[in-house]
Design brief:
Layout: H1 9-28, H2 45-50, H3 52-55, E1 59-72, E2 75-81, E3 86-92, H4 93-96, H5 98-106, E4 112-121, E5 127-138, H6 154-159, H7 161-167, H8 169-191, E6 195-196, E7 202-203, E8 215-218, E9 223-227, H9 232-240, E10 245-253, E11 265-274, H10 278-297, E12 301-304, E13 307-310, E14 316-319, H11 320-328, H12 338-348, H13 358-370, E15 378-381, E16 393-394, E17 397-401, E18 403-408, E19 411-418, H14 423-438, H15 449-457, E20 462-468, H16 469-477
Parallel strand pairs: 3-5, 6-10, 14-15
Antiparallel strand pairs: 1-2, 1-4, 2-3, 4-5, 7-9, 8-9, 10-11, 11-20, 12-13, 15-18, 16-17, 18-19, 19-20
Helix pairs in contact: 7-8, 8-10, 8-16, 9-15, 11-13, 12-13, 14-15
Length: 496
Amino acid sequence: MAERTENKPQDINGLLQVRRDKLKELQDAGNDPFQIMKYDVTHHSTDVKENFEALEGKTVSIAGRMMSKRIMGKASFCHVQDLCGTIQCYVARDSVGEEAYKGFKKMDIGDIVGLKGEVFRTKTGETSVHVSEITLLSKSLQILPEKYHGLTNTDMRYRQRYVDLIMNEDVKDTFIKRSKIISAIRRYLDTQGFMEVETPMLVANAGGAAARPFETHFNALDEDLRLRISLELYLKRLIVGGLERVYEIGRVFRNEGLDTRHNPEFTLMELYQAYTDYHGMMDLTENLFRYVAQEVLGTTTIVYNGVEMDLSKPFERITMVEAVKKYAGVDFDAITTLEEARRVADEKGVAYEAHHKKGDILNLFFETFVEEHLIQPTFLMDHPVEISPLTKRKPENPDYVERFEFFMNGWEMANAYSELNDPIDQRERFKAQEELLALGDEEANHIDEDFLNALEIGMPPTGGIGYGIDRMCMLLTDSPAIRDVLLFPTMKSLDK
């Protein structure tokens, strides 16, 4: 990368060679920076700035990457960037010694340095460190992007996230905030008596969601395996085993396309609680989102792309039939046959496939007319049984199930059920999924005989939910794309 936009390729090559020559000179003199094993850091940049009164005149040791350097004869200034921010350092020949000062002048932007010195303020009022010792800890052999133009190529930012984190402070802040979000989720669930567990990523049967799995072959057992698309079926096995409240935060893998809200590997959290239902999952979700927002943002008002979403009020609860009636003007309670559903779909321009049933068409109406309107926190409830193979039917209306999807900003943020625990009904639902597979639906589920056996052992009434952690991070960090909250998003190889 060029340090300045006007640099030509041959200029860059020359600058890179200069850095390697400097490294060789250091190594020949017995000062190889790569042989330094450790450096004792006493403070970060923000520690010094926020506690100036207590630290003024005292000695601190800081370390980080040199981001600027201004040579002024016998005294110079540089700025060093660490995890927390940037601090100015004053380096004078009389303080560090002539040899050390010569070495400092040869250092490059991007080098990692350790500095020891007294805390003071300059005449302009900037908190700084008056350096008495300086140590080159690592030599940068590449050239950082030019300061004022920065790393602006989006594709390169994702490919070289390590440079992105150096050059763009807001990017680093996003990922620090992501870590805090996940920590807050764990704290909340721990206080509610949930146990964090881990389940297999390589599975013989990738079930629990409608998605196409990645497939591989395990040579040692000569068996075909798949990467999991969900966490559900193994976590339910643990409920059967008597672990009444369990959750897992982990990567799942779906062999699908890339867009602003989808990446083929992403972070999912699923939790299951015995002796509750989907209403219990709604209450938990409201409390969890409020807690995490307050902990991470200090407020229950989220602003995303200029739109405010208020988590402090009770979340709206609306059935899928009510929502379609409200936004599409079609009452599916009044539609009794598949033929009527198809006729209305034709009239409204909703495309459907030959194998779609009434419930599938209702869901297509929801996706076409409703989803984009669900900006404020909303529980979309009571889905048709055709699209919910793992969910309990509503006793008073068995065409629908006790399921909700949680929406904010027009996005699905979570999916929850009163979990189906009837092994006979579950087997019939799996058979229906197998029929879809035979018709070419690559996202349908296979029959999972071991899971059915677990249900036959007996699973208590259970509420379960899955949260898209990446979308939650997008909302809470006001990030426009899922790639902005994944440290290393999936990218097409440069040699393709």
